[in-house]
């Protein structure tokens, strides 16, 4: 056996040893520390932090701090301002004193980059809900967008990408209510403003071009909010609430991604849903399933990828010479067939011709299957045998027909929706 053949055989052996009893493969999905910091904040707001290993979350944040005091958006970037602010927030929420070396070091980095004033909108949002930033420095999201007819383009939520839609609709509720929830321990983060406690610096940043017109429009929105003159405000908020409720999986997930899940739980809190309400409790349980706990750390994955991982592993095994009727591949095929989504999702708003038959990335994500996962699953299934070849064939046929109907007008395919373009002809 050549060195190459030996390496392939060893790789196959490793992959086969990692298959679960149910037939799928699943690896953890890494991210930067913001997901964990925001989850810490959510648990603090709901009081569910006492039931989670927050001391391990503390270790996780400590372990990912760079020598220059920052936390990175991606490995080797030298540190990111917004990521560092959220990590700093997480440590403060976990009780770390501001004179501790880790925070002194972090504070120097944050202030050298302009402090909170220069952070991204989503970071400022998370600070605003705990009173560490002024809501006036955040753009308005008028809830009447929810009640616009879908035919009015581009001003409907279905012109947003699916990930943006799942995260933005709950934000409409929170941005309208503008809550300020005090945490225990209470934090202010005054020390992260370059000029000290300058929270009055809440103006939206201007670029000196035509886009500054949107700042004037936002100012008008804010006046309308203060005077309670926002049209269809009540109807829009009710529609947003129902939209969130309708898109929660039975397992508690929203859209299969942490931003949508966290934002939806924040919306439920803004709407005064109790922590023991089934919507909230299922949502928090779903959040827990995205968590990773080791002997020393506790952190949150941005997403989970069993369908994608399984299809890719199966393709690699067959293409590297494993027999198509290998028992492991049959179990994988059976699991993938079982995971096919036969419900209509958001894709059907624009795709009036397609019938269900796709796959999503995650365990539970009925509303947002995607073209690339579906295509890879079809390729994987076509290369292996299953316990029921007739059923497998029907699954493949459904998927191929669905992909055909998802082709966009210019000729290509997007991931989750049909023709998400602002400049359509």
Key traits:
Glycosyltransferase; two-stranded antiparallel ribbon; mainly alpha; 15 helices; globular
What would you note in describing this structure?
- By secondary structure, the chain is an all-alpha fold.
- The protein has two domains: 126 residues, no CATH class; 267 residues, Glycosyltransferase (Alpha/alpha barrel), CATH 1.50.10.20.
- The chain has 15 helices and two strands.
- Strands 1-2 form a two-stranded antiparallel sheet.
- Helix 2 packs parallel to helix 4, helix 7 packs parallel to helix 10 and helix 14 runs antiparallel to helix 15.
- The longest helix has 17 residues.
- It is globular, with a radius of gyration of 24 Å.
- The model has no long low-confidence stretch (mean pLDDT 93).
